[in-house]
Amino acid sequence: QVQLVESGGGLVQPGGSLRLSCAASGFTFSSYWIRWYRQAPGKERELVATISSGSSSSSTYADSVKGRFTISRDNAKNTAYLQINSLKPEDTAVYYCYARGNWGQGTQVTVSS
Asked: Among 3-17, 22-36, 55-69, 73-87, where is mean pLDDT lowest?
């Protein structure tokens, strides 16, 4: 069955960086777009980044994260990544990856001094 497993979250100070990973299995990873969402306490889930399928993939970002977040994929490893730089307290949320109609369990990112 389809499985998406996020990792890489944690507690980081403002201005810090994290790299989130989404390990996929159970489907042809390279054929599907991958999306990263986040959900802060009391807020709706928000789409932050998308990467298209294939080897020459393109990406899009929410305005709130442009220039700080970078989405990428390694089709040989069936893994997608979200590099997060210049973290702000408002980036605190559970981050989820989404593909082929399926969600991962999420990974918590907390930005605090």
From this structure: 55-69
Token code pair at residue 26: 């159970």
34 bridge partner residues? 51
- Decide: helix, strand or coil at residue 37: strand
Res 54 pLDDT > 90: no
The Cα 102–Cα 12 span in angstroms is 28
State how far the Cα of 27 lies from the Cα of 39, in Å rounded to an integer: 25
Contact 87, 95 (CB under 8 A): no
Q: What is the rounded (10 degree) CA torsion for 13, 46, 35, 33?
A: -160
Q: Which of 25, 32, 8 is nearest to 101 (CA)?
A: 32
Q: Is the pLDDT of residue 56 over 90?
A: no
Alpha helices in 31-85 (DSSP H): none
Alpha-carbon Rg for the chain, nearest whole angstrom, is 13
Name the 3-class secondary structure at 4: strand
